[in-house]
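Technical annex B. To support the medicinal chemistry partners, we prepared a structural model of the target in complex with cytidine-5'-triphosphate, based solely on the information shown next.
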Amino acid sequence: MAKYRIGLGVTGGIAAYKAVEVLRLLQKADCDVSVAMTRHATEFVQPLTFRALTDKHVIVDDYDPENPDPIAHINFSQEIDLLLIVPATANIIGKFANGVADDFLSSTYLATTAKVMVAPAMNTTMWEQPATQRNVTQLKADGVHFVEPVAGELACKTVGTGKLEDVENIVKQAISLLVQGPKSKAPSQEQVVETLDIGHGTLDLKGEHFLITVGGTREAIDPVRFISNHSSGKMGFAVAEAAAVRGAKVTVVAGVTTVDPPANVKVIRAVSAEDMHAAVKAEIANATVFVGAAAVADYAPANAADAKIKKDGRDVMTLELKKTPDILSEVSKNRHDGMLVVGFAAETNDVVGYARSKMEKKGLDLVVANDITKAGAGFNTDTNIATILTRSGGEIELPLMSKREMADRILDEIVRLRKG
Ligand code: CTP
């Protein structure tokens, strides 16, 4: 019997042809796939293609006399473990978000209790429209999982975010979601690694154990105030998620973040630099790769007050700050044989020069340097622009791309370093 039953929904966009490859990969991963298409999708790919590959009727219209099942949207929706939409247009996202059920796929969405995963693909302006983003936010709140579109050259010859994520990544994320079973039950790392092996040699981090610091730290001034920074945790979580998908065991020490951590990674929370340092020390013995993606405060109030500090008529107040432990340097100094240490450098000027000096000072194997003044790079964005510096003097330029895509590019360099 197949491991999972998947309803693959194909909607009308240029990327519809990529759904064929998604179907093949799912079948190779031992999934039983049934396909439904919107009418516009059939303008891009013939239902016959999916029919030939699945040996099943491809549903486009419930009311089609050819349809062997008169209440297909009910039966189809109840016989699947996952409804996976590839590609998802702005239109289907809008219908799902607003409960519109005027065709087979949107009725199926309303009728299903299965998990739902959506892989959007569209022109950048359409993706970034407040209406689309509102619908995406609504669907996320409703529990729908997204395979975020990536940046790149689009069918309309423009460059930006809106390209369908790589088909292998879509399949890996879909299976990773299915492995989790019922929502409350988190999978073991081993279980995920086992099931994700779809035979493409993509588990290139199997056997590695990543320890990753993520997010910003908060340094208390008194019980109500603190010093912190704008870090969202998006870049570090993207690295964590990508490493887990590629077979690594992943532990994250997360400070303050504005986004949720990915599934399938162990998360330890830490608030201050001191807490983060303690958590890292407790976990480091098992790590084979350390990634310092956190924006750790370099200084903390020397004496945090136990009670709320009062103004007391003062016009000027001086805070005395003391240096926090440099977690990355400590890890690097005490590393065991074979451990790789990767740091980040967020700069505003002489980016490569400062990053290179950080690499030397902290004894790093790789540094991911970014100029946070560039549009589309830095804190709280979904995209980044960076240069990866290697010990051997290499400089790999990473143009504007999604943080998730960048995470894979960073991991590619880690794999390259491992191979020597
Ligand atoms: N880092 C750390 N512990 C600290 C400070 C930084 O682990 N106390 C790590 C970060 O996770 C990141 C790298 O070190 O990987 C950033 O280096 P750092 O020299 O601290 O950068 P800046 O704070 O930007 O330093 P500077 O102000 O000197 O530019």
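Notes passed to the chemistry partners:
The chain has a mean pLDDT of 90.
The first helix runs from residue 18 to 28.
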